């Protein structure tokens, strides 16, 4: 206590000396000092009795507070980066980029490869453990229901590890593993997606890039096909049948997406709108990815046998695909979400219609912030690696709030994510209400009103 008081006293004295040297305040003179002062005009001594009372002097604390307040005022009037807005009042991409820390756009090869290595080990360890259990004698002597209960936790764990690995391949698809050694993006993508996740890397990369180009466009968006709820009765019979059986499709939707090619086009067999504008050279690269996935799957199948392949590989793959569909669906569906047409779509507007969702701190981190950093990802999908998304999102939210545009960022806490996807998919499927479609921009609406 004495030591603290001594320190405070010493600091106060030093501060008083410093402030006095700066002329911030002076100690009040004594009566004798006043009496000895001379009138500068007459040269005679001043009459203390007739002098005005000395002006109330500031205390050290008051001076300190005043100086801090002045500093705050100076900071508040300092001009920040110039913000340019489009005709709808949304900051342009160049202005948004200035809101984020410079390090946001630093793609560090070593960091990227570190996360790739960690997730590779996680996949190998979890799948290896699952295979060890399935092939041991004790497991073979269990009844079928006992076997299912034994392996279920390991299948969930292995499937989640595969999902985390898929997120690394997602970075590779956006050339975010390395900007200096660009070949590493293809190498990591083929290992992560084509091999571990049995998802042909290049076909997925092509369709995913189109999704980012036209996110939340009514007809041009990829990964999701939008149907207008009010036109439900006019849909083809097979689409209506798909809606009627929607709750049975959740576990296999990603498999259907890859093989059948609904709605984008085949990712294993090359047909549909995905391939309309690609060269033969691109198709050859895509065929290589398909070959890697097929060879990997067939080799494991032949080595392990059908039963063990189904338990050790296919079941975790279904868990991974469920995570993938759930995250993708919930990122692009919200109660106030909007879709745009050719007349109203802009890249920034589409990006701000995506949704950041938090599934819980550790789910978010292990999933490489795929869920809670999605808005920034859509704004700068080939510039910000996953390990910069968290800080970038915090900066974006703060800066948007300071310019009165905080409402642009959508965030939904989703701790009950499995219940949320089941309910959302059951209630909405791929429907969107006509009221959610923006068919005229703000200027056209104003013109119509006038």
pLDDT averaged residue by residue: 85
- Helix amount, in percent? 55-70%
The structure class reads: mainly alpha
**Going across the major beta sheet, what is the strand order?**
1-5
- As a whole number of angstroms, the C-alpha radius of gyration is 32 Å
* Biggest sheet descriptor: 2 strands, parallel
Shape: globular
Number of helices: 19
What series of H and E elements makes up the topology? HHHHHHHHHEHHHHEHEHHHEHEEH
Please provide the count of β strands. Answer: 6
Describe it for me?
The protein is mostly helical and 450 residues long. It contains 19 helices and six strands. The strands form three sheets. Strands 1-5 form a two-stranded parallel ribbon. A two-stranded parallel sheet has the order 2-6. It has a two-stranded parallel ribbon with strand order 3-4. Helix 5 packs across helix 13 (306-331) and helix 7 (144-173) packs antiparallel against helix 8 (183-196). It is globular and about 70 Å long. Mean pLDDT is 85; it is low at 1-56 and 71-79.
Helix-strand blueprint:
Elements: H1 2-21, H2 31-35, H3 60-77, H4 93-99, H5 109-135, H6 137-140, H7 144-173, H8 183-196, H9 201-213, E1 227-228, H10 237-244, H11 253-259, H12 280-304, H13 306-331, E2 339-340, H14 347-351, E3 356-358, H15 361-366, H16 374-379, H17 389-402, E4 411-413, H18 417-428, E5 431-432, E6 437-438, H19 442-449
Parallel strand pairs: 1-5, 2-6, 3-4
Helix pairs in contact: 5-7, 5-13, 7-8, 7-13, 8-12, 12-13
């Amino acid at each position: 206590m004495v030591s603290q008081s001594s320190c405070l006293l010493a600091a106060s004295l030093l501060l008083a000396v410093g402030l006095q040297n700066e002329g911030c305040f002076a100690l009040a003179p004594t009566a004798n000092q006043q009496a000895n002062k001379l009138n500068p005009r007459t040269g005679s001594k001043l009459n203390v009795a007739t002098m005005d009372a000395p002006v109330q002097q500031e205390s050290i604390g008051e001076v300190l507070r005043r100086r801090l307040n002045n500093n705050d005022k100076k900071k508040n009037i300092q001009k920040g980066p110039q913000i340019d807005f489009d005709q709808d009042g949304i900051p342009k991409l160049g202005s948004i980029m200035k809101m984020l820390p410079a390090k946001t756009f630093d793609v560090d090869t070593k960091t990227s490869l570190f996360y790739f290595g960690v997730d590779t080990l996680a996949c190998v360890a979890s799948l290896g453990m699952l295979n060890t259990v399935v092939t041991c004698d004790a497991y073979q002597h269990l009844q079928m229901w006992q076997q299912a209960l034994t392996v279920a936790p390991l299948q969930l764990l292995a499937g989640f590890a595969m999902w985390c690995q898929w997120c690394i391949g997602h970075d590779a698809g956006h050339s975010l593993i390395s900007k200096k050694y660009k070949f590493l993006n293809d190498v990591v993508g083929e290992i992560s997606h084509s091999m571990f996740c049995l998802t042909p890397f290049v076909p997925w990369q092509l369709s995913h890039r189109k999704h980012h180009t036209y996110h939340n466009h009514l007809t041009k968006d990829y990964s999701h096909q939008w149907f207008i709820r009010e036109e439900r009765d006019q849909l083809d019979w097979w689409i209506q049948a798909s809606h009627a059986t929607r709750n049975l499709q959740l576990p296999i939707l990603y498999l259907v997406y890859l093989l059948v090619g609904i709605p984008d086009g085949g990712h294993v067999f090359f047909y549909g709108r995905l391939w309309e504008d690609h060269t033969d050279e691109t198709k050859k690269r895509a065929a290589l990815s398909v070959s890697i996935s097929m060879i990997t799957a067939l080799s494991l199948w032949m080595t392990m046998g059908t039963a063990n392949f189904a338990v050790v590989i296919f079941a975790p793959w279904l868990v991974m695909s469920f995570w993938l569909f759930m995250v993708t669906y919930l990122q692009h569906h919200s109660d106030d979400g909007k879709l745009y047409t050719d007349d109203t779509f802009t890249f920034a507007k589409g990006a701000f219609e995506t949704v950041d969702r938090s599934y819980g701190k550790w789910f978010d981190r292990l999933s490489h912030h795929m869920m809670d950093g999605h808005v920034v990802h859509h704004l700068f999908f080939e510039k910000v690696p996953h390990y910069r998304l968290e800080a970038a999102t915090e900066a974006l939210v703060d800066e948007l709030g300071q310019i009165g545009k905080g409402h642009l960022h959508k965030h939904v806490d989703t701790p009950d994510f499995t219940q949320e996807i089941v309910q959302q998919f059951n209630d909405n499927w791929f429907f969107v209400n006509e009221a959610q479609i923006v068919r005229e921009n703000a200027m056209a609406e104003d013109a119509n009103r006038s």
